[in-house]
Write a structure and sequence with these properties.
This protein is an alpha/beta fold and about 525 residues long. It has 18 helices and 22 strands. Helix 17 links the parallel strand 18 and strand 19. Helix 5 packs antiparallel against helix 7 and helix 7 packs parallel to helix 8. The longest helix has 22 residues. The radius of gyration is 25 Å and the shape is globular. The structure holds NADPH dihydro-nicotinamide-adenine-dinucleotide phosphate.
Length: about 525
């Protein structure tokens, strides 16, 4: 093991099972076992030390073919024949295995993404387990419907059945690798599909561990597969593959658009969960203490690397000064440090390339005239570390990049408004529609605003609440389709309509058809 990693692990008493998991090359998980194929290795770096953690298999199209064959054969074999209640038991066993390995999984997220280990435990691991448990319950509740035909002559039986859509590819981003894997995996398994997951090459560890646990608790081989490698190789091969029936993608809008175009060539079912630039409206009637703390949590969680981060605040002129002062004070108190330090809230960004992208946004906010309130004061890339201080700009205008583009880092922009209609128009401007938040103690005002804001998820006096029973997904350039909630199930099911002509009826003739018309 690399010396810097060993020292880092020793400083935070990292359990030995974490060391054993990463102190070896990481392959793919295909057909129920780990395989080491592909073109050599990709270095996996730990974001706080910036040192090599391990090497992961650099997969090729041939690895995707292997995974598709394994997933197809499981679908046509034991998994396809398994009664729903048995699937439910397996999913609950997987959730239980993850609970018993919660410490390992939280460490894997913390050293892979660089995120706070406290958040990894309370949000990522707990959320992933809850999601599996919730969808386990759905396995036994997926029904078609029997209907009365309304225009057919004679006696018929007409009903629908819901069948698994088939082999699912799940492409996962690096910000919440375990949780977003669980969003796709749980619903797909509940519907009886088999899954090939492609984690980000930056964060493959938790997906590999979940696939191993699935094998250990008894999932038939080929039901849960992971293929590692570079996005534009493995992700592209999955999007183009004829043997894949459904693609569920979470990631950036530009990559999502490309993946969507490719997947249409083989007419795949498609879900796209993409980027955001979520507005936050703070009205004159807001409780500012609550608003400031929820806004800070909503934008600086995971060091700002959150798709629905509330990153542009519109504050009513009467509350703007006090809100800004509270935001500044709160941001300056957030503990900054290593992901493995349980006290840290702001931790390194995922890579040096991403740190540079965020710094570039900070530089543009400064050059476009936004007023720096706290945090980073320059967009210059003259540093080694990947940690950026929570940064706030005031006097942001809607045409500035800081108010138009997704930054995906610890950067918050603030602006003022006088007129509510104007605030709504400004909040609704832009291409995204993932989330929006409203802060007000007036219930009528919050309900009215929740109806006027164009976003898939609306938060009232809070930000970033997630629950497995609630669908999550965006509008506009934030994508389509839902993760979580019963609404997600349809994305993994094919509905078949069955018509039965009851024997003994006269055959259809033109007269019957005419009457039916
Ligand atoms: P990317 O779009 O860069 O990557 C997402 C996934 O796609 C990764 O697994 C990546 O692999 C893979 N990929 C990259 N290139 C291709 C390609 N040409 N074909 C197929 N797959 C490819 O996003 P990030 O990982 O940087 O994640 C951040 C983005 O995700 C943000 O825009 C964020 O808003 C969005 N997101 C959306 C959420 C939602 O629910 N709406 C939730 C969380 C994040 P690799 O990393 O190996 O290149």
């Amino acid at each position: 093991m690399n010396k810097d990693i060993a020292t880092y692990f020793a400083r935070y008493d990292v359990p030995s099972e974490v060391t054993s998991f990463v102190d070896r090359p990481i392959g793919h998980h295909v057909g129920g076992r780990e395989i080491f194929t592909g073109k050599g290795e990709i270095d996996l770096l730990e974001p706080f030390t910036r040192s090599r953690l391990t090497g992961i298999a650099n997969g090729t199209e041939a690895d995707v073919d292997l995974a598709v064959a394994a997933a197809r054969s499981a679908l046509n074999g034991p998994w396809g024949r398994m009664p729903p209640l048995e699937r439910q038991r397996l999913m609950l066993r997987l959730a239980e295995a993850m609970r018993s390995e919660a410490v390992l999984l939280a460490h894997l997220e913390a050293i892979d993404v660089g995120k706070s280990i406290s958040e990894a435990g309370s949000i990522d691991v707990a959320g992933a387990i809850a999601n599996l448990e919730y969808f386990a319950g759905w396995t036994s509740k997926i029904d078609g419907r029997t209907t009365n035909a309304v225009a057919l002559p004679g006696e018929t039986l007409t009903y629908t059945v819901k069948e698994p859509v088939g082999v699912v590819a799940a492409i996962i981003p690096w910000n919440f690798p375990l949780q977003i894997l669980s969003w796709k995996l749980a619903a797909a398994l509940a519907c009886g599909c088999t899954v090939i997951c492609k984690p980000s090459e930056l964060t493959p560890l938790s997906a590999m561990r979940v696939a191993q646990l699935a094998a250990q608790v008894g999932f038939p081989e080929g039901v849960v597969n992971v293929v590692n490698g570079i996005g534009h190789v493995i992700g592209q091969a999955l999007a183009a593959h004829k043997g894949i029936d459904k693609l569920s993608f979470t990631g950036s809008t530009p990559v999502g658009k490309a993946v969507g175009k490719t997947s249409l060539d083989t007419v795949k079912r498609l879900t796209l969960e993409l980027g955001g630039k979520s507005p936050v409206i703070v009205t004159a009637k807001a409780n500012l203490e609550n608003a400031a703390s929820a806004i800070l949590a909503g934008v600086f969680l995971n060091s700002g690397q959150v798709c629905d981060a509330g990153s542009r605040v519109y504050a009513h002129r009467s509350v703007h000064a006090e809100l800004l002062q509270r935001l500044k004070a709160g941001a300056e108190q957030l503990p900054i440090g290593a992901g493995l330090d349980p006290a840290s809230r702001i931790t390194p960004l995922v890579s040096s390339a991403h740190r540079n992208r965020v710094l570039n946004h900070i530089g543009s906010a400064i050059s476009e005239g936004a007023h720096p309130v706290t945090g980073e004061e320059s967009g210059t890339v003259d540093r080694d570390d990947w940690v950026l201080r929570p940064t706030i700009f005031d006097d942001c205008r809607d045409n500035m990049r800081i108010f138009r583009e997704e930054i995906f880092g610890p950067v918050l922009g603030v602006s003022q408004f006088d007129d509510m209609d104007d605030a709504v128009d400004r909040a609704n401007s832009g291409e995204f529609g993932l989330a929006a938040a409203v802060y007000s103690d007036n219930v009528n005002e919050t309900i009215r605003l929740s109806r006027r804001l164009k976003a898939g998820n609306i938060y009232i006096n809070a930000h970033g609440l997630l629950d497995p029973a609630m669908p999550f997904g965006g509008l506009g350039a934030s994508g389509f389709g839902k993760d979580m909630g019963p609404e997600q199930l349809d994305g993994f099911l094919a509905t078949k309509s069955i018509y039965v002509q009851i024997a003994g009826d006269p055959p259809l003739d033109e007269d019957h058809m005419e009457k039916a018309r």
